[in-house]
Amino acid sequence: MSIEVVRIPVLSDNYVWLARESESGEVLVVDPAVAAPVLAKAEELGWAITQIWNTHWHPDHVGGNAEIKAATGCTITGPAAEAERIPTLDVQVKGGERIAFGAAEALVLDVPAHTAGHIAFHFADEQIIFVGDTLFAMGCGRLFEGTATQMFDNMQTLAALPDNTTVYCAHEYTQSNGRYALVAEPENEALAARMAEVDAMRLRGEATVPTTIGLERATNPFMRAATADQLAERRAAKDSFKG
Length: 243
Ligand code: ZN
Ligand code: FE
Known about the structure:
The chain is of the alpha/beta class. The chain contains 8 helices and 14 strands. It has 2 domains: 1-106, Ribonuclease Z/Hydroxyacylglutathione hydrolase-like (Metallo-beta-lactamase, Chain A); 134-243, Metallo-beta-lactamase, Chain A (4-Layer Sandwich). It has helices at residues 36-45, 59-62, 65-72, 148-159, 174-184, 189-203, 213-219, 228-239; strands spanning 3-10, 14-21, 27-30, 49-53, 75-79, 91-93, 98-101, 104-110, 119-123, 128-132, 135-136, 139-140, 166-169, 211-212. The chain binds zinc ion (ZN) and fe (iii) ion. Residues 56, 58, 114, 133 line the site of zinc ion (ZN).
């Protein structure tokens, strides 16, 4: 059993993730901002979409739900706490559940802060996690509906996963995050080396996502914050950072 994941860049900087579980042939879409490019990619691959999983209610994560469901009859799973804002949900989860994707199984993690009901999906056996807008390459989500303490707890939860866990986040924010990260941790050599690589990749027009838990533990100033207060300071500084 294995999970193949395909990146679909949409809008200005969103990534929709299309995944196929090999044993069952089930196909999952994570956070479809829009429908058309997702349906087109699935058709190109010959993949029949069976499920959508949403991490949170923001339109750039659920905007394609209705159209993909109408086209495929797929089942949509997302956060119970945000069900009123995601009227297309079939299955509500709040964290702690194990949910099936073909022969694979993900644990739902409750990671509030960016939104109050934000969840993530962790496939422990496959060492894959879909984190929506909670963790980014060298960054974390803005605190729209939660506190720095909640985000600090989320960072601790994610940092405890195995280093080689592949992290699928929902935006290409890496270069901007990295510019701030260099200010937060000017002496972090792993960070400087990563940023040189990221700058080169962006010059070539390449995506810098997915990332890994190990790389984030070494270079992400939010995951590396020692306390919730330090995370709060860094989040506030990044919010007004012009880099
Ligand atoms: Zn969001
Ligand atoms: Fe987003």
